[in-house]
Write a structure and sequence with these properties.
The chain has helices at residues 35-43, 70-90, 105-118, 148-169, 177-191, 200-205, 209-215, 252-255, 271-286; strands at 2-5, 14-19, 48-53, 56-62, 95-100, 138-142, 194-198, 223-229, 240-243, 246-250, 292-301. The chain is α/β, with parallel strands linked by helices and 317 residues long. α2 (70-90) packs across α3, α4 runs antiparallel to α9 (271-286) and α5 (177-191) runs parallel beside α9 (271-286). The protein is elongated.
Length: 317
């Protein structure tokens, strides 16, 4: 999905007008007979109103103010975008322009984030695309106070989030510890951060006993990835260190997980590693002036005759 700053709303047949409950939306509706309907729905706590105005479809989106915290307000904007996406799907509005009618830059950015992440799909292993799989192709943005730099930061953050999601969604049949290190290295080449990957021999020489212990039952070797982003204009003297758990699959010992689908989700046990890699991608792609280091130990955890157990076990009956 492409997000860009538009100079005007020409060429768009689908418009999203976003504002709070005090905003006047009627200025964007050319058919004056529908003004009363818009005002009635906004006053009646309807957050989305769809108006067919001549050859255009206008989606009125209200972001209602509240006494909740700043972060809660932004999350409400993301949730609103998720709900609006269903209306865009119903009208096959794959190309839209968002016109800001008075919300803050932060709320607008959160709303864009909600649209982008709702549009996310992990279709890598689908042999053919589903006919009903609606996707947003492009979103233009018409708003004062939004710079190209703002959109650059947003795009980098969203791309990093999507890459993290892709890693979490990959199965162990593809994403072994070595493959995870390879994917993280490729992300670094694209974004600009450096990656050093320790192989099993290096890990043994450094006596990384915790990682080696978890890896004992595995048929695949572990890795330890060291990520670094150190721009020349970094504002911090000491680096911030991010550590991400990279257990690409956790069997839970002997599958002692009784909850429904719990074993299916164990491929997500490396989400910490994915989050660190995604954060590095976003920070480096944005060129933020901060020195950071990432540490990602990676292995799968399986039981076999060599699996690690405590040296002394006392059982009481």
């Amino acid at each position: 999905m492409k997000i860009f700053k538009a100079g005007n709303d020409e060429g768009f047949n689908n418009r999203i007008i976003i504002g709070d409950e005090q905003a006047d939306f009627t200025a964007y509706i050319h058919d004056t007979s529908k003004h009363a309907l818009v005002q009635q729905r906004v006053a009646g706590q309807k957050d989305v109103t769809t108006i067919h105005d001549t050859s255009n479809t206008v989606f009125i989106q209200v972001l209602r103010s509240s006494d909740s915290s700043y972060n809660s307000q932004l999350e409400r904007a993301r949730i609103a975008a998720n709900a609006l996406y269903k209306h865009l799907n119903d009208h096959d509005a794959a190309s839209v322009i968002i016109i800001n009618n008075g919300v803050t830059l932060e709320e607008l950015t959160a709303f864009l984030e909600g649209l982008y992440l709702t549009d996310y799909r992990f279709n890598k292993y689908f042999t053919k695309q589903r006919k009903d799989d609606f996707r947003l192709n492009e979103v233009g943005l018409l708003s004062d106070g939004v710079s190209e730099q703002d959109l650059l930061y947003l795009a980098a953050s969203l791309e990093g989030t999507v890459l993290s999601r892709n890693l979490v969604n990959e199965p162990l049949s593809y994403l072994t510890a070595e493959k995870l290190a390879e994917e993280i290295t490729n992300m670094g080449r694209e974004a600009g951060y450096t990656t050093e990957v320790f192989n099993k021999k290096k890990i043994e020489s450094l006596r990384m006993g915790g990682l080696l212990a978890v890896n004992k039952g595995s048929i695949d070797p572990p890795t330890f990835s060291v990520l670094e982003w150190k721009p020349s204009d970094a504002i911090n003297d000491k680096p911030y260190v991010l550590v991400g758990k990279g257990v690409v699959y956790d069997t839970g010992g002997l599958s002692l997980k009784p909850t429904h689908d719990s074993m299916d989700y164990m491929k997500c046990d490396m989400a910490g590693a994915a989050a660190v890699a995604g954060a590095f991608y976003a920070i480096a792609k944005s060129g933020l002036p901060v020195h950071i280091i990432g540490l990602i130990p990676a292995t799968d955890n399986r039981p076999d005759g060599n699996a690690y157990v405590p040296g002394d076990v006392v059982e009481m009956y």
